[in-house]
Design brief:
The chain has about 140 residues and is mainly α. It has two domains: about 1-80, no CATH class; about 80-140, Orthogonal Bundle (Hypothetical Protein Yqey, Chain: A, domain1). Helix content is about 55%, strand content about 0%. It has helices at about 15, 35-40, 50-65, 65-80, 85-95, 100-115, 115-135. The radius of gyration is 19 Å and the shape is elongated. The termini are far apart.
Length: about 140
């Protein structure tokens, strides 16, 4: 069974609105050809999705009634400009018993200061359930 977003007339964006799709470096989807790769005209950043494209995906998901998916796309749009190492550190910090309440609050503050306010809110929202479930690392006594 197909999901509602797949029946949306604008989805997938790459098929129905290819001129609107840009990579993180600003290249058009049509610039990403095998010939461009072979000629060394495509770099790593050229195959990363842009925040704008993710926000378009979010709008389509929201219009199809898929709020959770839309929220995920919007958070992804905030994260795609962060270095991979930062994202991996955050991922590791959110694993059970890896971070104290203070660690997560600092991560949320850092995300917020980098403009990732939705991601910061998600980390803050996780603190209480983590505490209730015993997923927080015990703070060391000084």
């Amino acid at each position: 069974m197909q999901r509602e977003a797949n029946n949306h007339p604008q989805y997938p964006i790459g098929r129905y609105q290819p001129e609107a799709v840009r990579t993180l470096s600003g290249k058009k989807l049509s610039d990403l050809t095998l010939a461009a790769v072979v000629n060394g005209e495509v770099d790593d950043i050229d195959v990363r999705i842009s925040p704008e494209t993710l926000r378009m995906q979010a709008d389509i998901a929201a219009a199809a009634g898929r709020k959770t998916l839309a929220d995920n796309f919007r958070r992804a749009a905030e994260l795609c400009r962060l270095p991979d190492e930062t994202i991996l550190k955050i991922y590791e910090a959110l694993r059970p018993a890896r971070s104290t309440r203070g660690d997560l609050e600092r991560i949320a503050a850092a995300l917020e200061s980098s403009g990732a306010v939705l991601c910061a809110a998600m980390v803050r929202d996780a603190i209480a359930p983590y505490a209730k479930s015993g997923f927080l690392k015990a703070a060391h006594a000084a």
